Structures are given as C-alpha cells and as structure tokens.
Fold:
Amino acid sequence: MQMTGFSIEHGLILLIATAISGVPLWRIVARTGHPGIVAILFSIPLVNVGVLWWLAYGNQQPT
Structure:
C-alpha cells in the first residue's frame, strides 16, 4: 500500500481531531466573553500561540 495522496479515511480522522479539540476551545473562548469564532485561530500554526497569550494576559474586557 502506498502512503501517498489524501483518502477519505484521512479526511475523517482530520474531522474527528478537529471536533475533539475545536469544540472545547470554542466553549472556553466563548466563556471568556470573546466571540467563539476566535477558536478557529487555534488551528493556524504560530497564530495559536499569539491568541493563547492574548487570551491569557489581555487586560481588555470584551463588551
């Protein structure tokens, strides 16, 4: 079996992994008062570190 290409199994695994990590992140971000859509930024490498620091140390209260 060749290990090239992207199969339906890969897509299913990616979807499950995204749901397992994305849903809790969405809920955590929403509980901080920020829009839950910010959780999508956690899927972008290096941006996720910046968002994490922004959420942890940002002193601005969202409205």
In short: The two ends are 54 Å apart (CA to CA). DSSP finds two helices and no strands in the chain.
